[in-house]
Specification:
Oligomer: single chain
Strand content: 15-25%
Number of strands: 11
Structural class: alpha+beta
Order of helices and strands: HHHEEHHEEEEEEHHEHEHHHEHH
Number of domains: 3
Shape: flat
Largest sheet: 3 strands, antiparallel
Number of helices: 13
Distance between the termini: 86 Å
């Protein structure tokens, strides 16, 4: 701390920092935005729920590399933890939904790692993010300090904590959430919602100015204001006809929400929140710019550009933190996106037919992809040619033969 800073602090003139977590700029007026308050904004809640629920619904399996082929390592303890039940209290879907939601809202997600006698993971128990403190030793993480709900503190080694972080800021070991990096966007949406609520709570259909002859005393002014508010303010009194007394007049002021661009601002806030979470607006219910064609394209964009990064980060964290060095040489975790990208029955039929006719897909594999029971000898039967076979390629037209 410099001499000038100490003097300012002693005089009560200490300067507040405008930098937030990991150096991200935070407006001084945006201190009310927290993970809980951010979820009061519908677009923010929907964006987090969309990403977390999509990832939670995807199958996560552990695979063993076998030459050029691979197979699910169902006999490995970690496969059961990842795919079925991470702990005694949660299913895999509930656990990964919580992990991803915590990562998006706070920037980090933690889970206690319990290992067996052989060093393999037996369970993952979630840790409340706000109760975890990272202990540093230089540029590395030396451990974690966790305070449980009873106030008891315990220190955990790095190998005892599964740590998933969002995109890092100045500190590569600590994640930064989208609502922290773009806190002013969330605060603006909150302010717009409060403005609309205040308008409907306190406004009247005949809003305007009450004029009285002569000069009023303070107690008379308060009495008239209280009488007007009790009879005509609020949504329940909307539409009532005001009764004026003793020469008073009422001059209405017509300023609608549309005139003040409040509705447009609310719509723009939805788009801004979608930008910080990298979510297409159509997927959280904003259909103002949607058509059938771009809705299908947005589904592909969401799977490739939004989920792709998160899935890759989770898979990398599992391979690095939960697999032993020996197991990591031949095993890896991977999400299955087939269910999310599953097309209509007509599209799947055309895709399967093309694969079987061209010889790169077996009919037994098609039944497996459709979760149908296997049929013995199905692949040994001759493949029926399509009713509309692919035409033979024609030579490129040349001017010399014309």
């Amino acid at each position: 701390m410099s001499i000038i800073t100490r003097i300012k602090s002693a005089m009560g003139l200490e300067q507040r920092s405008v930098l937030g977590v990991n150096g991200w700029p935070v407006p001084l007026s945006a201190t009310s935005v927290t993970p809980d308050s951010a979820q009061s904004v519908a677009a923010c809640y929907a964006a987090v729920a969309l990403i977390a629920e999509a990832i939670g619904s995807l199958p996560l399996r552990l695979y063993r590399q076998d030459g050029d082929d691979r197979k699910a390592a169902t006999e490995h303890p970690l496969h059961t933890v990842l795919h079925r039940a991470p702990n005694d209290q949660q299913s895999a879907t509930e656990f990964w939904e919580w992990v991803v939601s915590s990562m998006l809202l706070t920037g980090n997600a933690y889970a206690r790692v319990t290992r067996g006698w052989d060093g393999q993971v037996r369970s993952l128990d979630p840790l409340v993010t706000s109760n975890v403190t990272i202990m540093r030793k230089g540029e590395t993480i030396a451990g974690y300090e966790y305070t449980n709900r009873d106030g008891v503190r315990e220190r955990l080694l790095p190998a005892e904590v599964f740590h998933l972080r969002h995109r890092a800021g100045n500190d590569p070991l600590v994640g930064v959430s989208p609502i922290t990096a773009a806190r002013a966007v969330i605060q603006l949406a909150q302010a717009e919602a409060q403005h609309g609520q205040s308008t409907f709570d306190n406004g009247t259909r005949a809003s305007g100015i009450i004029s009285m002859p002569g000069r009023l005393k303070p107690e008379q002014r308060q009495a008239i204001a209280a009488s007007w508010a009790s009879q005509y303010a609020g949504g329940a009194n909307a539409g009532k006809v005001p009764v004026m007394e003793e020469g008073s007049t009422f001059t209405p002021i017509s300023l609608s929400l549309a005139d003040s661009e409040w509705v447009a601002a609310r719509r723009f806030s939805v788009e801004e929140i979608c930008r910080i979470f990298k979510v297409p607006p159509v997927l959280i219910g904003d259909l103002s710019h949607s058509t059938y064609s771009n809705s299908v394209a947005m589904d592909m964009f969401f799977a490739k550009h939004t989920l792709g990064r998160h899935l890759s980060a989770i898979e990398g964290a599992i391979n690095r933190q939960l697999l032993t060095p020996a197991a990591a040489r031949t095993m890896y975790a991977e999400f299955s996106l087939e269910g999310l990208l599953r097309g209509s029955s007509q599209e799947r039929a055309a895709f399967y037919s093309s694969g079987v006719n061209d010889g790169w897909l077996k009919r037994s594999e098609v039944r497996k992809l459709e979760n149908l029971p296997a049929i013995d000898g199905l692949d040994s039967e001759p493949v029926a040619l399509s009713a509309n076979p692919r035409p033979a390629p024609q030579p490129y037209p040349s001017k010399q033969g014309a």
